[in-house]
Design goal:
The complex is a heterodimer of chains A (428) and B (585).
Chain A lengths: L1 H24 L14 E8 L10 H10 L4 E8 L3 H13 L6 E2 L6 H9 L7 H5 L2 H6 L2 H7 L18 E7 H6 L9 H13 L3 E3 L8 H11 L3 H7 L10 H13 L12 H9 L3 E7 L2 H4 L2 H4 L2 E4 L5 E4 L7 E2 L5 H27 L6 H11 L3 E3 L2 H4 L2 H16 L5 H18 L1
Helix pairs in contact in A: 10-11, 10-12, 12-20, 19-20
Chain B lengths: L8 H68 L1 H6 L7 H10 L8 E7 L5 E3 L7 H7 L13 E6 L8 E9 L9 E7 L2 H8 L9 E5 L5 E5 L6 H13 L4 E9 L2 E7 L6 E7 H4 L3 H43 L16 H39 L4 H17 L3 H18 L5 E3 H18 L5 E5 L2 H4 L2 E3 L3 H12 L7 E9 L2 E8 L6 H8 L6 H4 L10 H14 L4 E7 L2 E9 L3
Parallel strand pairs in B: 12-14
Antiparallel strand pairs in B: 1-2, 1-5, 3-4, 4-5, 6-7, 6-10, 8-9, 9-10, 11-13, 14-15, 15-17, 16-17
Helix pairs in contact in B: 1-8, 8-9, 10-11, 11-12, 12-14
The chains are: A alpha/beta (428), B alpha+beta (585).
Chain lengths: 428, 585
């Protein structure tokens, strides 16, 4: 009996010892990896203004990321580039298949915009807008028209209103007062006279530049051209087949005249030079749009006023604010991007309602803008939307400095613009 | 006679169990340590090769990014862009563009081919590749479905005519500004291009199988001299084909004969896999186990030697005790020598010696008692005379004394007759106090006749007390003792017997007015109750001295055990013996 018990004890020992030995050797496997974040990342590239350091469109991006936290996230790569550099970068990103999911400024590049449509690189948003009455209802007809293609497709997601797309003249009230000018000139004659008065007081009247499409000078020149019936009609033409006309000749004349009233550093400079001169108080006027109000330093903003171009004209093409969705992304990313664009439309509508409801509480500069917008101005289309890419991206960059420095005549300028049409047609 | 080996059984068992336990420990430790070491080695090796696979994957990523960057530079290069515009480039411009690709910042480009949208083919100067040959090569199909993504593909070189399989990097080239037909760029990579990845890992064991496969599972690169069987290779390929996703698609996967890990490059679809066979995974285990077993065997050897040594130190005294005990036959009481092991064995040896002493004493006593028993038996035989014969004889003597008018003789015979009647008392041990007093009275009368009435005696006992029962023949020896030692020829020598009841006790006292007992004798008698019964008789020098008292006390202790008191009181006017016994209900 005892022998039997001993055998059982030995067996238990043999079983328990390895168990005890091995129990201590066990090692817990690391915890399972946490589940992957299911937030859909929507890549986007936006600029940081080299002149003001302000991040463009940050408010709407932040608002969307907050509202859609956990579902969608706009992953912005902030790059410090001028608008011109950004637009050229878009082209490089396209041919290397590295475009972000949402792209801006597409309408400023007419041929590139066409390329993107024909290569099916961007999503037609019309079905989404049509299927979403809430979204469609937010968009002013003029804006939707501007963003629509002749066949009804919509590649540029419209903002809600044209109210924030207008360009006019920002002017320094203090410098005007120094020249004894109390009111902004209402006519072009008065405008030229104003420039003279400012110059007489050693104040440079205009902040201009020649790089890119010569935005600031071209705004003034095209607004002035639209002062005549022919000029206004020409500005409404899409991709004019010829620039050989009196209006363009007159515009060349105006441009040459405008550059007489600007700084020496305007030549071969981009818009940031003109802007910096204006903010530094070196020039009395600079032509630009609503979006510059927020970019101005707060203390300087108090000195600045906004007025329509003489003859009560504002330059506006709301489709330039249309953003596109790149088609090569996955359906869920594209869906998120479209949701973001709708969110942007709603934010734009909300902004207009808030701003126009409390215009008396707004800053004086903002009140100036609202007053100008409500003053039944003549809307002159943005030349960047209407004119061909060769003209904008190459011809103007070459012709404007030459014209300003009188290295070419007005006739030469007109001829160069005409050649751009030929070249452009050749590539089409 | 064959000499029997005197190895201790305890030592043998101790060593047997020690060896068994050590063997068990060796087996379990070897098993446990081997298992742990094997697991650790496996974990370490798997981690190492998994990390290596990730690193190689990262190298593959970098290589892809490099080709992507370089081809992106080609696409955005002004002359390339110009070649896609409507206007044709001049011959010089085309020649310059052909040379441009020879200087791109990418190593191991064996051949290149750029085809613009005007059917112009740009290659190395010696190459005579025509657009038709390009079309015939079917290379364009590898770019289908992409806009301008960098494509890697492993295919037979139909473009440059070598017919050998090679890695190609291809990409559509679009114009940045205008809508035009895209051009196409193809770079044929030298085998060194992929070898560079394997070369980045210097610690790759030659036994490890490393493969780079394309999206269709074709092997583009393979390293490892001790290649595995076809089954293993096909298993690896099947497993990679079945794995979905990108990045580390297979991590530390244990198969039947090795470990597999694989990394799929997200853009090219190329997969880099590492198969580590078991003989690499567990290399070094044999050495570890050999060293382990050697260490355990050494430990076991030392343990056995020490066990033998230490067990001998303990087993020798045990053997000594065992031998002594086995050799004891009851005659030889010689003590064994004291042990000095500083263990309980010393006490065992000492106790054994004490036990021997006790046994010797007991044997002596038993022998003595046997002797006494034989004497008693003889006496018993003598006492077996017929009491009636004795009484009749005494009656006859009494009648003769009466005829002869010898009064003293008549008294003596009457007293002796009474004395004998009680002494015999039909063999009963317990008698009434009255009978006991009658017995002692007869004895004292005989003594008075013998000693010519030289002493007086008094007996004090009430009627009720006389009915109590007690052990017989207790008082007579005490009186005898008083007459024997106390009588000093004084004129008024007196013996006084008192029996009374005290609660549950019967108190018997015998007083004599003779010479008081000596203090030494008094002390000895009073100390008798503390001695063992057997030792009482040794308290007196002479066997005759105190024999009566010892006899009485022995009988009392055997009858009443520890419920009695017996003591002597010695005073100037005499000596009193007191006995306290329990009353018998």
């Amino acid at each position: 009996m005892k022998k039997r018990q001993s055998q059982i004890a030995y067996m238990l020992l043999c079983i328990l010892l390895p168990v005890l030995l091995l129990t201590g050797c066990g090692q817990k496997q690391p915890e399972e990896m946490a589940q992957a974040d299911e937030t859909v990342e929507i890549p986007m590239i936006l600029t940081v203004s080299p002149s003001s350091g302000k991040k463009s469109e940050q408010d709407v991006v932040d608002a969307f990321n907050t509202a859609y936290q956990g579902k969608y996230h706009i992953a912005v790569e902030w790059i410090m580039e001028t608008e011109e550099e950004y637009r050229q970068n878009l082209k490089r990103l396209n041919v290397t298949d590295k475009l972000p999911a949402v792209i801006t400024d597409l309408r400023m590049l007419p041929s590139y915009y066409r390329l993107m449509i024909e290569d099916h690189r961007i999503v037609d948003l019309a079905p989404y807008i049509e299927a979403d009455p809430e979204w469609k209802q937010m968009i002013e007809p003029v804006v939707l028209d501007g963003c629509s293609e002749p066949d009804g497709s919509v590649y540029l997601s419209p903002i809600s209103t044209a109210a924030f797309s207008c360009s006019g003249i920002f002017w320094n009230e203090e410098l005007f007062a120094q020249a004894g000018i109390e009111e902004f000139p209402q006519t072009w004659e008065e405008f030229w006279s104003c420039c003279e008065k400012l110059q007489a007081k050693a104040i440079t009247p205009l902040g201009l530049h020649t790089e890119g499409t010569g935005w600031s000078a071209m705004l003034l020149a095209t607004a002035e051209m639209a002062d005549s019936e022919e000029g206004a009609a020409f500005m409404n033409e899409l991709y004019p087949s010829s620039y050989q006309n009196d209006c363009i000749y007159h515009m060349a004349d105006t441009l040459q005249r405008l550059y007489k009233y600007t700084t020496k550093d305007a030549m071969n400079a981009d818009f940031d030079v003109a802007y910096n001169n204006f903010v530094a108080g070196k020039v009395a006027m600079v032509a630009n749009g609503y979006w510059m109000i927020d970019q101005l330093p707060e203390e300087f903003r108090e000195k600045v006023r906004f007025s329509p171009f003489p003859g009560n004209k504002l330059v506006s093409s709301p489709e330039t604010f249309g953003w596109a969705v790149v088609d090569s992304y996955s359906e869920e990313v594209k869906q998120g991007a479209i949701e973001f664009l709708k969110f942007r439309t709603a934010e734009n509508q909300k902004l207009k309602e808030e701003l126009f409801a409390r215009d008396t509480d707004a800053s004086r500069l903002l009140q100036d803008y609202i007053r100008a917008y409500r003053g039944q101005p003549q809307i002159v289309p943005n030349y960047q939307v209407k004119w061909n890419s060769v003209l904008q991206e190459r011809t103007l960059g070459e012709a404007l400095p030459a014209l300003a420095q009188k290295k070419i005549t007005q006739a030469d300028f007109v001829r160069m613009l005409g050649e751009s049409v030929t070249e452009s047609k050749k590539e089409e | 006679m064959k000499k029997q080996k005197t190895r201790s059984g305890i030592q043998r068992k101790y060593i047997k169990y020690t060896v068994a336990l050590l063997l068990l420990a060796l087996l379990l430790s070897c098993g446990g340590v081997s298992w742990v070491v094997q697991k650790n080695q496996e974990t370490v090796m798997m981690d190492t090769y998994n990390t290596m696979c990730e690193n190689l994957g990262a190298s593959l990523d970098l290589l892809y990014e490099k080709t992507d960057e370089v081809t992106a530079d080609c696409i955005t290069y002004d002359s390339v862009q110009k070649s896609l515009r409507s206007s044709a480039m001049s011959g010089t411009q085309r020649s310059a563009l052909s040379k441009y690709f020879a200087y791109i910042n990418l190593d191991d480009v064996a051949e290149y081919c750029y085809v613009d949208n005007k059917k112009n083919v740009y290659t190395k100067s010696y190459s005579k590749l025509t657009f038709h040959a390009f079309r015939e090569s079917g290379m364009e199909q590898f770019l289908k479905g992409s806009y301008a993504t960098t494509k890697w593909f492993w295919t037979e070189d139909t473009l440059f005519g070598t017919g050998q399989e090679a890695l190609f990097v291809g990409r559509y080239v679009h114009n940045m500004d205008y809508v035009h037909e895209p051009g196409m760029l193809f770079l044929k990579m030298d085998p060194a291009f992929l070898q560079e990845i394997a070369g980045s890992e210097k610690n790759l064991d030659p036994g490890v199988l490393m493969q780079i496969t394309d999206a269709d599972g074709a092997v583009c690169f393979q390293s490892g001299t001790k290649t595995e069987s076809k089954n293993t290779l096909s298993y690896v390929q099947e497993r990679i084909s079945a794995a979905k996703g990108t990045g580390m698609i297979i991590s530390r996967e244990k198969t039947g004969n090795g470990m597999l890990c694989a990394y799929r490059q997200k853009d090219s679809g190329m997969t880099i896999s590492i198969f580590v066979p078991d003989f690499v995974l567990y290399a070094g285990m044999g050495k570890i186990l050999t060293v382990l077993v050697m260490i355990f065997l050494l430990v076991m050897l030392f343990a056995v030697i020490l066990s033998v040594y230490f067990s001998k130190r303990l087993s020798l005294p045990i053997q000594k005790i065992s031998k002594k005990m086995a050799g004891f036959h009851g005659n030889d009481y010689t003590r064994m020598e004291e042990l000095h092991t500083r263990t309980e064995l010393d006490q065992i040896g000492h106790s054994y010696n004490e036990m021997l002493g006790n046994i010797e004493q007991l044997v002596t006593e038993v022998k003595s008692q046997e002797k006494e028993l034989r004497t008693v038996e003889v006496n018993m035989l003598l006492n077996q005379m017929n009491p009636h014969f004795l009484y009749n004889t005494l009656d006859t003597i009494y009648m003769l004394a009466r005829i002869n008018k010898e009064e003293t003789t008549m008294r003596m015979i009457q007293a002796l007759s009474k004395y004998l009647r009680l002494s015999l008392s039909k063999g009963e041990e317990i008698v009434t106090v009255a009978d006991e007093l009658e017995n002692v009275k007869s004895y004292m009368e005989i003594q008075q006749i013998r000693n010519a009435d030289l002493f007086r005696y008094e007996i004090h006992c009430d009627e009720e007390t006389q009915q109590e029962r007690m052990l017989k023949l207790i008082l007579q020896p005490l009186v005898e003792n008083a007459i024997k030692y106390g009588f000093d020829s004084q004129e008024h020598y007196r013996i006084e017997i008192t029996i009374r009841r005290e609660k549950e006790e019967l108190v018997l006292s015998v007083y004599n007015s003779g010479t008081p007992i000596t203090p030494d004798a008094c002390e000895k008698i009073n100390g008798l109750m503390q001695l063992p019964i057997a030792d009482m008789k040794n308290s007196f020098q002479s066997r005759k001295n105190g024999y009566g008292i010892v006899n009485v006390l022995t009988r009392l202790r055997l009858t009443y055990e520890d419920q009695l008191s017996f003591y002597v009181i010695s005073k100037e006017d005499g000596t009193t013996f007191v006995i306290r016994i329990p009353r018998q209900v």
